[in-house]
Amino acid sequence: MKSYSGATFCFGIAALALLYGCSDIIDRANIFGSDEKVVVAEVGGRKIYLSDIDKEAQRYSPLFKLKEIKSPGQKAKLKESILHRVVDNIALEMEALRLKIPVTEEELDDEVHSLLGEYDDAKFQLTLAENKISFNEWKEALKKGIMIRKLVLSEIDSKIKVSEPEIKSYFKSNAEEFKWPERVRARQIMVDDETKAEQIRKRLLKKYDFAKMAKAESQSPDAADGGDLGFFGRGQMPPEFEAALFKLKVGEISEVIKSIYGFHLFVVTKKEKPRAMTYDEARERIRKILMTVKREKEFKNWLRKIKSELDVKTYPLALSAHR
């Protein structure tokens, strides 16, 4: 499972900004009236110019809705925020390079496929063109993101421990937060023909074993498990399924229900009323909560240390002088 923290998202967000909300991307004209010669920060001797902040703002424009920002005060706060992101990213990148954190081609390819998925290639290429960025530049940004993520995993996550007493203490103090909603467990049979579904239902009503029928007739991936769908609560199933399932009694066979996948029959095998989770049921969720809290604290302290070693300098007057 991937673990992310704070500034580690920045490169990924910039890349994702190219995929979503593209119609909101602003014109290439400078947002803040940038000057390429104005230095607004230095990180380990590497200069950051006002024009760099402008370029980063354009990457984030779909997320921040920059077109709607008219107030000079709001623009100034946004510039400060973006400057801090850029400084943090560069500091993390330098630390990853210092520690020689590797990124393999396989890792990079996996990340590309994960982000793009089934995204329309023509639209993606158009988005890159509109933002005057090449596919290789986009991949390089992703590579930096992976490198930073691995750095954080190595330097932060691998060193954080959550003890059993801590988990038990949290559970004791916050037990009200951990409750199961109303849930049902059900089996299904899915076929692609309504007449066949009706015939199967007639056999089931004569007490034919539902699980055996599912294994023999169902075309759903869960057929091998006798159509077992496991437990689920409200909002986890398509509305047409949910409406039927939560009304059925245990052991009752549903009517034939049509969906985009085919024709379905359901039987509810168990119902659970809302109840409090046991410690064992809540344990992993609590562990993740405590990990997140510790990670954020450790990450801030660790990043502060890295930046102090790199002698980071920011020049707020230079930033605010150009609006």
Tell me what the structure shows.
This protein is α+β, with helices and mostly antiparallel strands and 323 residues long. It has two domains: 6-160 and 293-320, Porin chaperone SurA, peptide-binding domain (Triger factor/SurA peptide-binding fold, Orthogonal Bundle), CATH 1.10.4030; 179-276, Chitinase A, domain 3, CATH 3.10.50. The protein has twelve helices and nine strands. The protein has helices at 10-17, 50-64, 72-98, 105-116, 121-130, 135-155, 164-173, 194-205, 210-217, 239-245, 279-309, 316-320, and strands at residues 39-43, 46-49, 179-180, 183-191, 228-233, 257-258, 263-272, 275-276, 313-314. The strands form three sheets. The chain has a four-stranded antiparallel beta sheet, with helices on both faces. A three-stranded antiparallel beta sheet has the order 2-1-9. Helix 1 packs antiparallel against helix 6 (135-155), helix 4 packs across helix 6 and helix 7 (164-173) packs across helix 11 (279-309). Residues 1-33 have low confidence and may be disordered.
